[in-house]
Write a structure and sequence with these properties.
Layout lengths: L17 H19 L2 E4 L3 H13 L11 E5 L14 H4 L9 H8 L3 E6 L3 H4 L9 E2 L3 E2 L1 E2 L2 E5 L5 H8 L5 E6 L5 H7 L2 E4 L19 E6 L2 H11 L19 E5 L8 H16 L3 E6 L6 H20 L10 H10 L1 H4 L6 H7 L7 H24 L4 E5 L21 H6 L3 E9 L2 E8 L5 H19 L12
Parallel strand pairs: 2-3, 2-8, 11-12, 11-13
Antiparallel strand pairs: 1-3, 4-5, 6-7, 8-10, 9-10, 9-14, 13-15, 14-15
Length: 477
């Protein structure tokens, strides 16, 4: 099996025609994707779109640094020419959405080629308890390219696995709580969850309007920065943050406590990452912690927002599609063998029972989320005069278990999720051949700072340890 094409670390225009890049990746998808099942809907127009962009370039019309670059898009993001299903058979046979999502329109305007749609954990992993990340009734089971019997993470599993497998250097994921940074860490790529609101959410199937955001999933930090520039409309050039490795003016807080101790190998890789930041000149403020979260804090807000947001989204789809959460629940009940073979829809059912956004339960939960998330993060940053926080990202990829569901040992995304604050996961090393990463977080609008820190770390790590290992598409212990 051929090796995936490696990104250069930057975003210099590919000297080859866009059509050549698309055809190479399409061949790669045909060769590799039967193993990982990351791409659920290829774009049949990708080659013709690339040829048209090549003609523009030949005529001296280049739209920007991503002109002709192939991009994969998660299958909960509207594309007017391709199905958008959230992994559910309830939407699989429906016509494509009437319009592109705002971010897809921006990708096209920047000259990107939509290569296809990526599989996801069905309904972005917010349908039932005991789910297995990467599984959907529409797209099947996405597997980790580094270990085919281990999870690719969720819910942007297809986007993460596709970049790791060399099916594209650029992909789009979405996150409510960990759905970009988790598959990024498990697949050994870069995943950037922007500040909520920085990337428009119009045309994205929602869970929680206060927590949802789309973001880049790429091979390098610079590629994520370039992609974020496009997704946000181009007002800020985030590539400007990728400037060397000198962090002597930076203070980084090290989050300890429950984020450590569940994987000895991950802890060791993270300690080595901290040494790398120190070599770059950063001042580390160690042994910090955030207040523990209750399960109710994390569930009540998205449960209430899902019912309202999903009905609003489904109203944009053509007649024949389900119109609300109750109709989706009924569809799943009518198709249990296809939709409910491994786990149920308890979260859907709980959301359907909620009383709307005026409910005292929702208002109290939202206020609690803000106190725990925003106030907790901002107070820690302010009291310690910090620019960012760092912690281990996620445990190494767990063995896939469709019967019992995911076996996640620990995560680092929940406080930022409740706050709507940015996170950036970047590879830090391997544990028994499985990728692990660190996650950088900060306050609202600190996306450029996180990019700067991640780029410096990535550059210094590669100088010390060499390029990150490529996947071998084999079973693992």
């Amino acid at each position: 099996m051929s090796s995936p094409r490696q990104g250069s670390g930057g975003v210099s225009p590919d000297p080859r025609p866009a059509l050549a890049s698309v055809e190479e990746l399409q061949a790669r998808i045909r060769e590799v994707d039967p193993l990982v099942r990351a791409v659920c809907t290829p774009n049949p127009a990708a080659a013709s779109d690339a040829a048209r962009l090549d003609t523009e370039r030949d005529d001296g019309r280049t739209r920007g640094p991503l002109h002709g670059v192939p991009v994969l898009v998660k299958d909960n993001i509207d594309t007017a020419d391709l199905a958008t299903t959230a992994g559910s058979l309830a939407l699989a046979d429906q016509p494509p959405p009437p319009d592109d999502a705002v971010l897809v329109r921006r990708l096209r305007e920047a000259g990107c080629v939509i290569l296809g749609k990526t599989n996801l954990s069905e309904w972005a992993n917010f349908r039932g308890y005991g789910s297995s990340s990467g599984w959907s009734a529409y797209g099947g089971l996405t597997r980790n390219p580094y270990a085919l019997n281990r999870s690719a993470g969720g819910s942007s599993s297809g986007s993460g696995a596709a970049v790791a497998a060399g099916l594209a250097d650029f992909a789009i994921g979405t996150e409510t709580n960990g759905s970009i940074v988790c598959p990024a860490a498990l697949n050994g790529i870069v995943g950037l969850k922007p500040t909520v609101g920085l990337v428009p959410q119009q045309g994205i199937i929602p869970i929680s309007h206060s927590q949802d955001t789309a973001g880049p999933m790429t091979r390098t930090v610079a590629q994520s920065a370039a992609l974020l520039t496009v997704l946000t409309g181009g007002g800020t050039d985030y590539l400007e943050a990728c400037r060397g490795t000198d962090l002597s003016d930076v203070r980084i807080g090290v989050l300890r406590g429950s984020l450590w101790g569940y994987s000895t190998g991950l802890d060791q890789a993270t300690e080595k990452a901290l040494e790398t930041f120190s070599r770059c000149g950063a001042t580390l403020v160690d042994h910090l912690s955030l207040r523990a979260l209750g399960d109710d804090d994390q569930l009540q807000v998205p449960l209430h927002e899902l019912k309202v947001g999903l009905a609003k989204y489904l109203a944009t789809r053509k007649e024949g599609a389900p119109r609300n959460l109750a109709e989706l629940i009924a569809f799943n009940q009518a198709h249990p063998d296809e939709e409910l073979p491994w786990f149920g829809q308890e979260l859907f059912e709980r959301a359907e029972e909620t009383g709307g956004l005026d409910s005292p339960i929702y208002v109290a939960a939202r206020m609690s989320a803000l106190r725990t998330g925003r106030d907790g993060i901002d107070t820690l940053l302010r009291d310690n005069q910090l620019d960012a926080l760092v912690s281990p990202a996620y445990s190494p990829a767990w063995t896939i278990d469709l019967v019992n569901g995911d076996h996640v040992l620990g995560s680092s995304s929940s406080h930022a999720a409740l706050a709507g604050y940015p996170l950036l996961s970047v590879p830090s090393g391997t544990v028994a051949g499985l990728p692990v990463g660190i996650v950088l977080g900060g306050t609202a609008g600190s996306d450029s700072t996180l990019i700067r820190l991640a780029h410096a770390f990535e550059t210094a790590r590669i100088e010390s340890d060499g390029p990150f290992p490529t996947p071998e598409f084999r079973q693992w212990v």
